[in-house]
């Protein structure tokens, strides 16, 4: 089983309204750029899976 890709290099592939879609150059996954921010936040603080009020 391979570890999940951390999407080290991405490029913008589409823009729609206020959303940018990016493609990971390593695994070719396409996702909303906001998800990339979420991934970075999870890596920075892996123990905080609860919301701010919890």
Tell me what you see in this structure.
- The protein has a domain at 10-44.
- Helices cover 22% and strands 30% of the residues.
- The chain contains 1 helix and 3 strands, in the order βββα.
- The protein has a 3-stranded antiparallel sheet with strand order 1-2-3.
Task: Present the secondary structure layout.
Blueprint: E1 10-16, E2 19-24, E3 30-32, H1 33-44
Antiparallel strand pairs: 1-2, 2-3
The topology string of helices and strands comes to: EEEH
Largest sheet: 3 strands, antiparallel
Q: Could you name the ranges where pLDDT drops below 50 across 5 or more consecutive residues? A: none
- How much of the sequence lies in strands comes to 25-35%
Which strand order spans the largest sheet, edge to edge or round the barrel?
A: 1-2-3
Helix count, DSSP H or I runs of 4 or more residues:
1
Q: Give Rg in angstroms.
A: 13 Å
- The SS-based structural class is alpha+beta
- How many strand elements? 3
Question: What level of helicity do the residues show?
Answer: 10-25%
């Amino acid at each position: 089983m391979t570890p999940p890709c951390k999407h080290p290099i991405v490029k913008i592939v589409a823009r729609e309204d206020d959303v940018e879609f990016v493609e990971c150059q390593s695994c070719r996954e396409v996702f909303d750029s906001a998800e990339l921010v979420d991934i970075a936040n999870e890596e920075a603080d892996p123990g905080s899976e609860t919301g701010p009020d919890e």
